[in-house]
Write a structure and sequence with these properties.
The protein is an alpha/beta fold. It contains twelve helices and 15 strands. The two termini are 20 Å apart.
Length: 405
């Protein structure tokens, strides 16, 4: 089966990329979606005889389809599959939430040893966010396979870029195994401003960018967004039979506080509450499907809940306090970033001086303008109009790197 190679020429995906992407769709009459990890025939031969590093978490699996209707789909972790195939996997790099995906958001992940495989685990969410020189030594190739959800402040794409940059500096090729983006059916939100860039957004992209993680990797390379314009030797193993408008229900939680499709759908919108003093459902079983705070108006907001310490949220906002807010678990699917919840909460907040954590909010939003617009009383449509020029400009860049219709 073909492999997609990206030479990363600035402003253009390579001709090889588009030609091979077309041939991938033509090679099989089967219309079943195949994730790249399942396409072992396309990438296992590239790993044989080499010392491999793997950037992975609990979503990095090869699925084994059920043998009969109604049977539960099972899977094997990619690390276990590589070892079973005789591939020389020598170390694992772990992103935010850790290799097995159990750490809190923002909780430092430590180096260690994976108990199941015995592999050394190097943290990319502790003192280093970028693989330092020592852990790179002795590697011939690095494989990146992590499920993304298509939101700029979801930190796996920052980890991807820093891994690519580190590998480029050491002359180590990178293979990205592509996975569907459950929020790929639209592109929306404010664009990251250069002075606010950081781990919540390294590049001038909108809040929701409408690309798979493989497409995003080719864009990072092609637009020369890494330090000093350095480029990685990048190979993207593509999905088969995938479209951006395809609905994809994640079989495995991508992180502890995105437990289901509804949370993932609402995450681009409710994730903006992370830069405020409003609880967005952490410490409950409705993470990113509700919001509330003790100081929201209890006469307007009749829904209430109390955050408690739980796996993935040991210290949620307003722990043990009654929060007044809104339950969004029955909301229809979104096709754009919604500011309705944020605006409603601000308008009906009894203590507006407690609402924003200004620095954190600006880093999540990617701009200082949004907080000022909300405080000035602008409507959602008035705010959205200020995003249009940047979204139009990004759309032109994005089109150069799309691998799927």
């Amino acid at each position: 089966m073909p492999v997609i190679l990206s030479c990363g020429r600035k402003g253009n995906a390579s001709a090889t990329t588009s030609e091979i992407a077309d041939s991938t769709q033509q090679d099989s009459a089967d219309t079943t979606l195949r994730i790249a990890a399942n396409r072992t025939e396309a990438y296992f031969p590239l790993l044989m005889g080499k010392k491999i590093g793997l950037v992975a978490n609990q979503t990095s699996v090869i699925f084994r389809e059920p043998g009969q209707p109604g049977m539960k789909t099972t899977f094997t972790h990619l690390a276990d599959s590589l070892l079973s195939a005789g591939i020389d996997l020598v170390k694992v790099f772990a992103p935010e939430h850790g290799f097995r995906g159990t750490a809190d958001a923002g909780e430092e992940v430590s180096d260690g040893v994976d108990r199941r495989s015995g592999l050394p685990v190097i943290s990319l969410y502790g003192k280093d966010r970028k693989p330092s020189k020592a852990p790179r030594e002795g590697l011939d190739l690095v494989v990146f396979d992590i499920q993304d959800v298509g939101v700029r402040f979801y930190t796996y794409i920052a980890t991807l870029q820093l891994v690519m940059e580190a590998c480029a500096e050491s002359g180590i090729p990178v293979i990205v195994l592509d996975r569907p983006n459950p929020n790929a059916h639209y592109m929306d939100g404010p664009t990251m401003e250069p002075h606010l860039t950081g781990f919540l957004g390294l590049n001038p992209i909108p809040l929701v960018y409408g690309m798979t993680i493989g497409e995003y990797a080719t864009m990072v390379n092609g637009e020369e967004w890494m330090d000093n314009g350095i480029k990685a030797e990048l190979t993207v193993i593509p999905l088969e039979n995938y479209r951006h408008d395809m609905r994809y229900s994640l079989p495995i939680k991508p992180s502890p506080n995105l437990p289901n499709d509804k949370a993932i759908d609402l995450y681009p919108s409710l994730g903006l509450f992370e830069g405020t003093n409003i609880n967005a459902g952490r410490g409950t079983d409705g993470q990113f499907q509700r919001y509330g705070a003790p100081f929201l108006n209890r006469e307007f907001f009749t829904f209430k809940y109390t955050p408690e310490s739980n796996p993935g949220a040991k210290h949620p906002k307003h722990l043990g306090e009654i929060c007044y807010g809104e339950d969004l678990s029955a909301e229809p699917e979104l096709r754009r970033v919604s500011l309705a919840y944020l605006l409603k909460a601000y308008r009906h907040c009894d203590r507006k001086d407690l609402f924003f954590n200004t620095s954190g909010f600006s880093k999540h939003a990617g701009t200082e303008k949004l907080q000022k617009q909300i405080e000035a009383g602008l409507s959602e449509e008035e705010i959205r109009m200020t995003w249009k020029a940047d979204l139009d400009a990004f759309q032109k860049i994005r089109k150069r790197y799309l691998l799927y219709p």
